[in-house]
Amino acid sequence: MPELPEVETIVRVLRRRLPGAVIADVRVGRRDYVRSPRPSAGAHLRGRRVRAVRRHGKRLALLLEPRGSLVVHLGMSGRIDLGPASAPVPRHTHLRLSFRGDDLELRVTDPRRFGGVSVAPDRDGVADGLGPDALGLRRPVFRRIVARPRQIKALLLDQRAIAGLGNIYVDEALWAAGIHPLTRGTDLGDDEVRHLLAQLRRILAAAIRHRGSTIRDWRDARGASGGFQARHRVYGRTGLPCVRCGATIVRILAAGRSTHVCPGCQPSPG
DNA sequence: GTCCATGTTCTTTA
DNA sequence: CTAAAGAACATGGA
Description:
Helix content: 10-25%
Distance between the termini: 33 Å
Structural class: alpha+beta
Oligomer: single chain
Number of helices: 6
Radius of gyration: 20 Å
CATH class of the largest domain: Mainly Alpha
CATH topology of the largest domain: Helicase, Ruva Protein, domain 3
Shape: elongated
Strand order of the largest sheet: 2-9-5-4-3
Largest sheet: 5 strands, mixed
Strand content: 15-25%
Number of strands: 11
Order of helices and strands: HEEHEEEEEEEHHHHEE
């Protein structure tokens, strides 16, 4: 159930082995999970070399030679495994790619199927419809995005505004910046906006350094769990004392999602 | 049986 | 047009 740091962690694993590899077999499980123009995903992918692995927001793409891409979004429960072709195939595996001359298979597994894969035979659609990636955000751009009369949590979660942030990292960044999630973007001061962006950058970088957050069962493409969950300050800490001020962390609803707030550090907007 | 889940999209209501 | 709330999607864990 990956946000930007988890997807970035997977991308870094894939980059160690995939660039230069040539796709051999393509096996599609559920047809409705893998979207592709005619004739078939296999026909478009077989025999093509992986040029690079790229990420934008929560999506990742294998860029193919000479052009074209395979874009993956993991939704809530999606997972990518890269390992020996002989390894047992887990349930809910919807796509398998093997590679020429290598005992290697890439599998996309997703029990809830909120994610999906799409094949673009002659273009790179990884950023289609998404805002700028959260990792490369520049201050003036961020300022413009946030200058709306909308709850800041909803704004940060909107992938068309900023790509990559999800429920965990939004809650963590708002806590770190001392901003209540229901505050309207237009009510943030200049210094608050600057501080929020700084905290977002810091937290994303730290989460990537710790290979993401494993809450329940997230694993990277080699099966390793993340370590950043041990550093969460509000997410999943309802009822526990705030490490900064000692107040009890509460859970509210914002943008339709469970939202974790410290009433001491994040003053309610009203 | 209940509630909840690292996501997205659509519908309704204001 | 904008924003918010709720439901929907499908599966599994506590």
